[in-house]
Amino acid sequence: MASTTKTLILDLASELSTLTDPQFNMIIDFVNLVITKNDYGLKQQMAQTFLAAHLLTEVATSGSGSGAVTEEKVGDIMKKYDVASSTSGSLLDRTKYGRMFKSIRVVRFT
Question: What is the reported pTM?
Fold first, then answer.
């Protein structure tokens, strides 16, 4: 069984190198469980890697605001985000890795 690894994910998404091993391990265990060879065939490892990179990107950015900045104030620091724009559509559309995973998923069903 081909499974994704931290090395494969970091080869794809080096910006995730600041995340911890426990964060990587949790996401890797999850994607290796849900993305099976029976469903994805030869694209299993690629699908696992893109989905893991997507989920880890979400983890890495979860502390920051999301959506378009609609207001910004400098004195006493204030920012407002357009939450509707960040939650509309598929959650997979929020990262380039999620969009790549979706394209693999689409090809699988055609």
Answer: 0.75
